[in-house]
Specification:
about 290 residues; mainly alpha; 8 helices; 3 strands; about 10% strand; elongated
Length: about 290
């Protein structure tokens, strides 16, 4: 099942993120680098968001029931909201700590080991974010793609920390908390983006791969269809629900009109990417 494949990706990413977060935290504390510790906190929340993703995918994969006739797919979107909220909380904590360190500056101890740890974890983050994004697009998993953006932000954060290290070595210790500020703002931006995309799905936005030209070509090519109107779709990539009004010759029998509606439904499901369900309303054609 697709949900099982997505969960396996999350478990692999979780193990790697835990290793990265632990390495950054240990050497960041030893070095006294607030930006490196902030980066470790960010990586730690990557791990927590992976756990949220695993739970959300498990619950979203449950079959429809009397209380949820459309299934539990939106639980994945709720999990995405949790990840976005966690990012905003992380950003707030980093900005507060950066402010404290700015008014009470402490120059971090930069060594070859701390630089090596940052470079090593940077390489891991690049590999993880690329893998997670590719699998998210392959499985059309919104939460996996969102989490890949979270992981990818670690790449830019790590580059910023390394830049801060260089500035400190050049005699600018205040660069470390300033870099922490930049990290906090970057994380906040990622969180807002994820929340916005999740909100679009929960508010049934039509920002989905329901190409009107493709829908028109499929419907109008179906034998017996005279026209159509009011095509609508909602949901998320990979799990789209739609409805459409199709007009037919009013002289047709009910059984023939029903057969046409079933054919329209079949063709749309086969052609429109991610379309899970489509309700076809049959109406008499009143055109001259």
């Amino acid at each position: 099942m697709q949900g099982d494949r997505v969960q396996r990706v999350f478990i692999i990413v979780l193990a790697l993120n835990l290793a990265v977060a632990l390495a950054k935290a240990v050497f960041g504390i030893i070095a006294g680098s607030v930006s490196m510790v902030a980066d470790a906190l960010h990586s730690g929340f990557d791990s927590l968001s992976n756990i949220v993703g695993i739970i959300a995918i498990y619950l979203a994969g449950k079959p429809p029931d009397p209380e949820h006739p459309y299934g539990h797919g939106k639980i994945e979107t709720l999990g995405t909201l949790v990840i976005g909220s966690m990012l905003l909380l992380t950003a707030a904590g980093i900005l507060i700590e950066g402010y404290r360190r700015l008014i009470s500056p402490v120059a971090p101890s930069i060594t070859a080991v701390t630089v090596g740890v940052m470079i090593g974890t940077l390489i891991i983050n690049i590999a993880v974010s690329t893998y997670e994004r590719r699998k998210g697009e392959e499985y059309q998993s919104q939460i996996l793609v969102a989490d890949s953006l979270h992981t990818r932000s670690d790449v830019f954060v790590s580059i910023a920390v390394l830049g801060g290290f260089l500035a400190v070595r050049l005699g600018f210790p205040e660069a470390d908390p300033i870099i922490a500020f930049a990290i906090g703002l970057l994380i906040a931006r990622m969180g807002i983006r994820i929340l916005y995309e999740a909100a679009e799905i929960l508010t049934d936005s039509m920002n989905l791969p329901c190409d009107p030209a493709l829908v028109r070509a499929v419907v109008m090519d179906t034998p017996g269809v005279a026209g159509y109107h009011d095509f609508r779709c909602r949901g998320k990539p990979g799990e789209i629900f739609a409805d459409i009004h199709v007009t037919v010759d009013p002289a047709l029998s009910v059984s023939r009109a029903h057969a046409i509606s079933e054919e329209v439904e079949r063709r749309l499901k086969e052609t429109v990417p991610g379309l899970s369900e489509v309700v076809v309303h049959i109406e008499p054609d009143d055109s001259p």
